[in-house]
């Protein structure tokens, strides 16, 4: 994996952390320009995530004929264990901390649907959010994985077009007509296609190694994001996010020796899942003991970072390797028995 992409993944995760800090501690009422930026624009970290996800999935599967079931199984064992764990912890926190978290409600139906990546109305009454609120993005990720797994049935040159057609059918036909959940009627799903296009550019050598031009492009993209509302998402935030990803790839020669950036990128998924739990715990401490929110946040940041690193090492990487090794061993045994 490109160190530059890993670094950007880490920055995107921490932008979302700051966004949710403003939400949980200040109810999105910022007191300064930095707070305003993260309140209004911190969610763009999700857009960057989606572009990177399309890029990574494309680069990891290009020129490979992978059975759809194997692709999905690999994605499931990579994504699901950590998500299920933190969804369970969030459910327990909501139960234990009531009524201190009046807007957080959990019931068995929404909890099970959350685990199955099925969009449903949150019992707290604030929309189509799972028990672990940030999991809404994973519902889109799983849709992308399911559709991507199906394109392996077709020639490689046709796969992006077929995937685009499938996303269009679900988002702009089925979603907007009400035949599937309105959750999917969101043009944010097309950002996965932007990531695939970036992957095509990278594979064909269209992204050259530079310094000043990428930095200017990043500045222009951030300026655009800061001055535009998120809708239409694919245009106003998706395209600038793709520009940022391309620019960061151009900066790879200047970043490839910074192993810490790779580690931060490795931990970004756990940062994303874990941070709301830590922030809610910090908010409870702040409310009960009157501690300054920024002081609490200063404590939350290293807790999130350390917890995410442990989560990556023990759950994401460790459990994934054990499960994948066991599955590969079973597959090899079956193939040997049939030969």
TrEMBL record:
Annotated Pfam families: Acyl_transf_3 (PF01757)
PANTHER family named in the record: ACETYLTRANSFERASE, BLR2367 PROTEIN
Record flagged with keyword Transmembrane helix: yes
Limits of the Acyltransferase domain: 4-310
Transmembrane found in the keyword field: yes
Taxon lineage: Bacteria, Pseudomonadati, Pseudomonadota, Gammaproteobacteria, Pseudomonadales
GO cellular component: a single term: membrane
Transmembrane segments: 42-62, 83-101, 134-154, 161-177, 183-202, 211-228, 234-255, 267-285, 291-315
Highest rank taxon of the organism: Bacteria
The species this protein was found in: Pseudomonas graminis
GO BP terms in the entry: polysaccharide biosynthetic process
The name this protein goes by in its record: Acyltransferase 3 domain-containing protein
Gene Ontology molecular function: acyltransferase activity, transferring groups other than amino-acyl groups
Annotated keywords: Membrane, Transmembrane, Transmembrane helix
């Amino acid at each position: 994996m490109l160190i530059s992409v890993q670094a950007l993944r880490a920055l995107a995760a921490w932008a979302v952390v700051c966004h949710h800090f403003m939400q949980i501690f200040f109810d999105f009422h910022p007191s300064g320009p930095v707070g305003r930026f993260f309140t209004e624009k911190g969610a763009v970290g999700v857009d960057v995530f989606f572009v990177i996800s399309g890029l990574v999935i494309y680069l990891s599967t290009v020129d490979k004929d992978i059975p759809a079931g194997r692709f999905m199984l690999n994605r499931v064992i990579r994504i699901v264990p950590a998500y299920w764990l933190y969804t369970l912890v969030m459910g327990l926190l909501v139960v234990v901390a009531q009524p201190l978290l009046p807007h957080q409600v959990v019931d068995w139906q929404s909890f099970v649907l959350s685990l199955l990546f099925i969009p449903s109305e949150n019992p707290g009454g604030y929309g189509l959010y799972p028990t672990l609120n940030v999991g809404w993005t994973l519902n889109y990720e799983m849709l992308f994985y399911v559709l991507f797994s199906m394109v392996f049935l077709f020639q490689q040159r046709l796969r992006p077009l077929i995937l685009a057609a499938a996303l269009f059918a679900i988002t702009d036909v089925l979603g907007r007509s009400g035949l599937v959940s309105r959750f999917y009627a969101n043009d944010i799903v097309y950002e996965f296609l932007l990531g695939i296009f970036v992957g095509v550019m990278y594979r064909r050598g269209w992204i050259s190694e530079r310094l000043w031009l990428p930095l200017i492009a990043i500045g222009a993209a951030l300026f655009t994001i800061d001055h535009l509302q998120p809708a239409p998402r694919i245009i106003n935030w998706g395209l600038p996010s793709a520009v940022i990803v391309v620019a960061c790839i151009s900066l790879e020669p200047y970043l490839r020796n910074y192993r810490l950036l790779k580690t931060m990128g490795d931990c970004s998924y756990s940062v994303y899942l874990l941070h709301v739990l830590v922030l809610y715990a910090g908010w409870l401490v702040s409310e009960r003991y009157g501690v300054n929110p920024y002081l609490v946040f200063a404590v939350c940041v290293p807790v999130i970072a350390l917890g995410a690193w442990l989560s990556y090492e023990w759950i994401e990487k460790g459990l994934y390797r054990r499960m994948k090794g066991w599955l590969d061993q079973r597959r090899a045994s079956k193939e040997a028995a049939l030969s």
